[in-house]
Amino acid sequence: MVEISDIEQIFSEELNWIKDKNLRKKVVEVWKKASDRGGWKTLDKVPFTLLFENSGVLTDHTKRITHLAKAVMDQRDEKLNNDYLIAGALLHDVGKLLEYDVVDGKVVKGEYGKKFRHPVSGALLAKECALPDDIVLIIYAHSHEGDKCERTPESFIVHHCDFIDFHIRKSLV
Ligand SMILES: [Fe+2]
After folding, report:
1. CATH code (residue 162)
2. Among 31, 66, 151, 155, which residue has the fewest nearby CB atoms (within 10 Å)?
3. How far is the CA of 79 from the centre of ligand 1 (A)?
4. Which residues surround the ion ligand 1 when the cut-off is CB under 5 Å?
5. 92 CA distance to ligand 1 centroid (A)?
6. Mean pLDDT in the chain?
7. How far is the CA of 148 from the centre of ligand 1 (A)?
């Protein structure tokens, strides 16, 4: 079972960028709930993506996106909600823990994941855990599902940072 302390350790640097301690705790809670519900014993077996081979580990991708999002945030003069941006970046792919199943030692898209892609399942879980709607939107709208949404600035940042990482990794395999 993945423990709260494991999640806090993996994302220790990024969690500290969230000023609101209660929000920081909720981000960890969502990861914990997704790990338990997805039946994961360890997070280092969860791949970034199934769309190409050897994509690496999801938590590493999550850290890269959060660092990219912070780098954009630090360059902007507009008043952005930094806590929401970092929390949204940390949670944008948490639904993958529910989207994937392990069959014969191989990670595949599960039945639930076929119905609800990770932006949807992640947003539903964040909503269930009472995260603010602006963070739920960052999760829901980070991929194509959000093309029909009115994205916020924070949501645009995570959306574009995610695709920067996806395309770079995909082009190098
Ligand atoms: Fe992602």
Report:
1. 1.10.3210
2. 151
3. 24
4. 93, 162
5. 6
6. 97
7. 19
CA distance linking residue 137 with residue 88, whole number of Å: 8
Task: Summarize the confidence of residues 106-115 as an average pLDDT.
Answer: 97
- 109 beta partners: 100
Query: What is the residue whose two structure tokens read 């008043």?
Result: 79
**DSSP state at residue 156:** H
Count: domains in the chain: 1
- Distance spanning both ends of the chain, measured CA to CA: 31
pLDDT at residue 166 is higher than 90: yes
pLDDT digits (tens, 9 = 90+) for 67-102: 999 999 999 999 999 999 999 999 999 999 999 999
Helices of type H across the chain? 4-10, 12-15, 21-38, 58-75, 82-91, 96-99, 111-115, 118-128, 133-140, 153-172
pLDDT at residue number 173: 85
Q: Is 144 helix (H, G, I), strand (E, B) or coil?
A: helix
* Distance of alpha carbon 30 from alpha carbon 125, whole angstroms: 7
Take residue 79 and report the two structure tokens written for it.
């008043």
Query: 19: CA distance to ligand 1 center in Å?
Result: 23
